[in-house]
Write a structure and sequence with these properties.
The protein has 349 residues and is of the alpha/beta class. The chain has one domain: Alpha-Beta Barrel (TIM Barrel), CATH 3.20.20.70. Helix content is 32%, strand content 17%. It is built from twelve helices and twelve strands. Strands 7-8-9-6-5-4-3-2-1-10-11-12 form a twelve-stranded mixed sheet. The longest helix has 14 residues. It is globular. 41% of the residues are buried. Bound molecules: S-adenosylmethionine and iron/sulfur cluster (2 copies). The site of S-adenosylmethionine has 21 residues, from strand 2, strand 3, strand 5 and helix 12. S-adenosylmethionine (SAM) binds next to strand 2, strand 3, strand 5 and helix 12.
């Protein structure tokens, strides 16, 4: 094989990062703002009235987002997740969903939302082609819910959003994300399980993480998923479910009585960096290769300076080839000590 052909083949192959991981998922923060101030993510003390969010023209527009997705798909991306901040604060989001639905190679189009605005958008999102939706819900106690949203959210709105999503139906279903914090909402976990058991809506319990730099995280506030599973299993016997695919983030369990499944995301106690195939695009167009990264690659400038598709593809490929992130595994090796990193609402969960 001549040198030209060999180098052409190398540049058309799917890139693997430095730990041999392929690129499969792209999480896109479509909006850095949020209508909640969950203390574990955007505490009011930092994100108060005087905090400056991006201007509209600083956020990637729909053409730019769709273009990056079209160029990322041939590099291996088949799954997109829209997130934020709060994605439903982005005007006309269903239009973006419809455009991303048409990107060749995308087989799974998902969104994570706090659910407050979902009741009024569920059916247009489903019609636009959204495959799955995850609603964050930390407790069914209305007063505690209000507190955990930073004093901004009403439980009944989120429950109405979940019911609307269940009613319109999404091809790959509705899930609930619950962040569990020791001494905050861990005592309400069984109630949540009971509410969604048998409904087809899977609840996934997430270990509280040291995202961003402002949530005063301490390892003592984490409830290890294993302990949670033992507690839930004592009430409703559980059986482990084998992963659907290599690198699945959630560990799944089924109720022995056939009432469905729950899951855990144990990023602190059992880090899963080895199977991490996710890249993240911030609202302002920076590409991050880890939820805990400190630096991103500025794709917005590249696009706005007129770069062609080949140049952007090349940049995407290089970023992935150079990736060596394994923050959660390193955190475990550092015994929980934190490092400085990007804020979560810029790049989404
Ligand atoms: N606003 C939307 C929502 O809350 O669903 C989407 C963005 S939010 C950053 C995405 C997910 O990250 C949510 O499920 C949220 O609970 C989770 N999250 C935020 N801060 C977290 C933390 N410190 N530890 C674990 N999960 C967190
Ligand atoms: Fe907003 Fe979601 Fe962060 Fe809560 S977790 S502050 S809803 S972005
Ligand atoms: Fe992936 Fe970074 Fe999380 Fe590890 S810490 S699983 S590399 S996002």
């Amino acid at each position: 094989m001549n040198i030209m052909r060999a180098s052409h083949q190398a540049s058309t192959m799917l890139p693997l990062d430095r730990h041999g991981r392929p690129l499969h998922d792209l999480r896109i923060s479509v909006m850095d703002r949020c209508n909640f101030r969950c203390p574990y993510c955007m505490p009011e003390s930092t994100y108060g009235e005087h905090f400056t969010f991006l201007r509209n023209d600083e956020r990637l527009d729909f053409d730019e987002i769709a273009r990056l997705c079209r160029l990322a798909a041939p590099l291996g991306v088949s799954k997109l997740r829209l997130t934020g901040g709060e994605p439903l604060l982005r005007p006309h989001l269903a239009e973006l969903v419809a455009r991303l639905r048409r990107v060749e190679g995308i087989t799974d189009l998902a969104m994570t939302t706090n659910g407050v605005l979902l009741a009024r958008h569920a059916s247009e999102l489903r019609d636009a082609g959204l495959d799955r939706i995850t609603v964050s819900l930390d407790t069914l106690d209305p007063a505690l819910f209000h507190r955990m949203s930073g004093g901004r959210g009403a439980l009944e709105d989120v429950l109405a959003g979940i019911e609307a999503a269940q009613a319109v139906g999404f091809a790959h279903g509705v899930k609930i994300n619950t962040v569990v914090q020791r001494g905050v909402n861990e005592h309400t976990v069984l109630e949540l399980v009971e509410r969604f058991r048998g409904t087809g809506t899977v609840v996934r319990f997430i270990e509280y993480m040291d995202v961003g730099n402002h949530n005063a995280w301490s390892a003592d506030d984490v409830v290890p998923s294993q302990a949670l599973i033992e507690r839930i299993g004592a009430r409703w016997p559980l059986q482990p479910v084998p992963p659907k695919y290599a690198g699945e983030v959630a560990t799944r369990y089924r109720f022995a009585d056939g009432a469905g499944e729950i899951g855990t995301i144990a990023s602190i106690s059992q880090p899963f960096c080895g199977g991490c195939t996710r890249a993240r695009l911030s609202s302002e167009g920076k590409l991050y290769t880890c939820l805990f990264a400190a630096h991103g690659t500025d794709l917005r400038s590249l696009m706005r300076e007129g770069a062609g598709d080949d140049a952007i593809t090349q940049r995407l490929r290089e970023v992935w080839l150079h990736r060596s992130d394994r923050y959660s595994e390193e955190r475990a090796e550092r015994h929980g000590r934190r490092k400085r990193k990007i804020e979560m609402h810029y790049i989404g969960g």
